[in-house]
């Protein structure tokens, strides 16, 4: 995947409970539950419009790893398919 900016879809609202995010896509009526790691990624995206490359750097640093890009790409692809996030190529 090329680098791109990530935004939360304006059709989605979320709430965090017990370190897990619950996301409602108002347009589709679907609820999505994220585990602890997914919630960390969600909170990074929710905090600001962020580039994927910056997200990867932050998460690798946070988890003291250097190999998370593929996992992050998979997560973002699933979020995009469910219309939870929007991406803009840069």
Description:
The protein has 90 residues and is an alpha+beta fold. The chain has helices at residues 36-47, 52-62, 69-81; strands spanning 4-8, 12-17, 20-25, 30-33, 50-51, 85-89. The protein has a 3-stranded antiparallel sheet with strand order 5-1-6. Strands 2-3-4 form a 3-stranded antiparallel sheet, with helices on one face. 17% of the residues are buried. The mean pLDDT is 94.
Shape: globular
**What pattern of helices and strands is seen along the backbone?**
EEEEHEHHE
Strand order of the largest sheet: 5-1-6
Mean pLDDT: 94
* Gyration radius over CA: 13 Å
Main sheet characteristics: 3 strands, antiparallel
What structural category do the secondary elements indicate? alpha+beta
Distance between the termini: 12 Å
Summed up, the helix count is 3
Low-confidence stretches: none
Percent of residues in helices comes to: 40-55%
